[in-house]
């Protein structure tokens, strides 16, 4: 069992003598609790508080952070920011502490975003890929780049895992401070809609923000597509960003492009009026090529990445960099240097006579974009392992099963990370969707390793096995039990087992 830790749990660099609590209170217009206390860092999680920290005691959906203030105190917190006074530490009391956290943490870390160009990437699908492509384009332009994505927090000199797409404000600002101190000049930051709604990215202004696309997801959290869209759109307000790049190939992107009141570069593969227009897109089993037309010229681009979605993501990255004034040819060369995005249509090759891929598709928009492309790569069947994660939009489970069955020949329903939910219930919803489609054979196998082994045993030469849903996640969580499970590693292992079992067949 692994102990949970907050995102980016490295030591805070601390800034000199720290920041006076009185200055923090004044910054957010709260009464000054005590003049002499100084803080050197901030944490929203008592389990990862460091000596000298300000403990951000947020109201949560399970409990109030103040329930954990004794642990924060014992770990060395010297003050609290909350909507209620602490019983043990001086507290800056404010109505909505999340709303103040960005500005406060930026102050504590000496406004790191002001020392670098910070770029944001948002959208339902493609944020991580686009952020990493953008980072490569910025590197090619001479920047030293840090990235904050769901894959990890990667600075010029350090790397840290993360549990979220976008961490809380304390981690965002601490990580920006770290990147700055490591010499970063630019940062590519993946921004979820939760991050906008929960003020995780408050306290800074982006140089440019890119939008990939919007499709049904996170509706349990936002309640409707309109509210989900509104959360994304807020990121494009002039107080948040100096420039924008917006994909206009879906209805929400077109709506967004009309709302944006900062300089906006639209990108598209459908509408030639877009400032960044991708055409002649060709996708093979080894690369993706296209011609990109822009107001500053046209260029041929060859991406060593698989799938038409990566052409879109590359256009989003390119448009974001161009919106910030970067050079087309230089950025394009940077995009071409990205050889893979971990867990995104990643090939696993153990010498088997069929294609095996791991991908992080976890909504129907991703399935609809990728599975038809995957089918073009083989002449045989498409065998998909599908499931759904707990504590995430239950409404997408049935459609995930149904869409997999609509687009594949064989669907193996298995577990992802049920977290605190009942695995049988999640699996049943996905399987019900798969069976309702009545178009593929459906097998249910709860144990993921057995499911992967089953998929490779079924595969004939010229078939393709797609292990979907978890990408490069390295852990599977059943309640509090966390086991190591990387789909890419296990898929390779079961392919090797099969090779041993069948001898010369593979
Ligand atoms: C909706 C949401 O953002 N929830 C987050 C929130 O949970 P919660 O409100 O239930 O927290 P809680 O358990 O009641 O605890 C309240 C407070 O006490 C603190 N605490 C809690 C326990 C403890 O021992 N010590 C302690 O200090 C917590 O840090 C929190 O500040 O605070 C928890 C601790 O920080 C987070 O783990 C949890 O993220 C949940 C698990 C999560 O994953 N949220 C998802 C929906 C999310 O944010 N997703 C987006 C988008 C993903 C995508 O793009 O697909 C993301 O950016 O990752
Ligand atoms: N442009 C796109 N259109 C549709 N689906 C996409 C696109 N880009 C990526 N995907 C799908 O989404 C999955 C996740 O890709 P990526 O990590 O780049 O997106 P993300 O938005 O960061 O995802 P998440 O929000 O889950 O972190 C991919 O494995 C693929 O299945």
TrEMBL record:
Keywords for the protein's UniProt record, in alphabetical order: ATP-binding, Cell cycle, Cell division, Cell shape, Cell wall biogenesis/degradation, Cytoplasm, Ligase, Magnesium, Nucleotide-binding, Peptidoglycan synthesis
A Pfam family: Mur_ligase_C
Entry's EC annotation: 6.3.2.-
Leading EC class: ligase
Pathway listed: Cell wall biogenesis; peptidoglycan biosynthesis
N6-carboxylysine PTM sites in chain numbering: 232
Annotated Mur ligase N-terminal catalytic domain residues: 43-88
Binding site for UDP-N-acetyl-alpha-D-muramoyl-L-alanyl-D-glutamate: 46, 165-166, 192, 200
GO MF terms, alphabetically ordered: UDP-N-acetylmuramoylalanyl-D-glutamate-2,6-diaminopimelate ligase activity
HAMAP family: MurE
NCBIfam families the UniProt entry points to: murE (TIGR01085)
Protein known as: UDP-N-acetylmuramyl-tripeptide synthetase
Organism in which the protein naturally occurs: Rhodococcus cerastii
High-level lineage: Bacteria, Bacillati, Actinomycetota, Actinomycetes, Mycobacteriales
